[in-house]
Amino acid sequence: MSALVIDAFEFGRSNGHRDGTMPVARMARLSKDCADDSGELSWSVDGSTISHGHAALTVAVAGSVQLVCQRCLNPYVFAFEASTMLVLGKDDDQADEIEDMLDDESIDVIVGSRTCDIGDLIEDEALLALPQVPKHDVCPDTKLLDALNADKPSPFAGLKDIKTDTPNQQ
Ligand SMILES: [Zn+2]
Questions:
Q1: CA 76 to centroid of ligand 1, rounded, Å
Q2: Using CA atoms, how far apart are residues 83 and 60, in angstroms rounded to an integer?
Q3: What is the SS3 assignment for 95?
Q4: Is residue 88 one of the residues assigned to a domain?
Q5: Are 110 and 88 in contact (CB under 8 A)?
Q6: 102 occurs within a structural domain
Q7: Which residue range(s) make up the domain with 52?
Q8: CA–CA separation, 8 and 28 (whole Å)
Q9: 3-state class of 79 per DSSP?
Q10: How remote is the CA of residue 9 from the centroid of ligand 1, in Å?
């Protein structure tokens, strides 16, 4: 069993804590949404118990990934920090009951597992933190940059002039 697999109910009731770092490359679903799979995320999972004795996990992730701007199609670094409390239900029915009882949009209720892979929870949290349409706050104006570069005389053009001019001056 992987070190990242926990009994989610037990982890919550015993106020468990785990933290670490995970390379983006190890998260297939996340890397698919990124320009490349460089970088790593730091994460932590904390167990707790909420009202009525329901176990909960608070999953936090922070780090940065490379996304592709949908406006100019250039890659850029997206830094984020996110955390969500996941309350555990034993099955779908209980999860629905807890959801109604909490009536809190910021808390998610999931069906807990005794063989819960923390890695999946971390990746889910990171995916939720990504913008739906990734884009720069302000795109670098590449057209303007390209135009500037095209207007600039080549340094070799200058050398050629010197070479051809020199014999005439003598
Ligand atoms: Zn852009």
A1: 8
A2: 4
A3: helix
A4: yes
A5: yes
A6: yes
A7: 5-140
A8: 23
A9: strand
A10: 44
Q: How many domains does the chain have?
A: 1
Is 84 within a domain?
A: yes
Q: Give, for all 170 residues of the chain, the pLDDT tens digit.
A: 467 999 999 999 999 999 999 999 999 999 999 999 999 999 999 999 998 899 999 999 999 999 999 999 999 999 999 999 999 999 999 999 999 999 998 899 999 999 999 999 999 999 999 999 999 999 987 666 666 666 666 655 555 555 555 455 44
46 DSSP β-pair partners: 17, 58
For residue 138, the CA-to-ligand 1 centroid distance in Å is 7
Contacts of residue 22, defined as CB under 8 A and 6 or more positions apart, other chains included, come to: 40, 41, 43, 119, 122
* Residue with tokens 């804590």, as numbered in its chain: 17
Is the distance from CB of 21 to CB of 41 less than 8 angstroms? yes
Per the structure block, which two tokens stand in for 16?
Answer: 């468990």
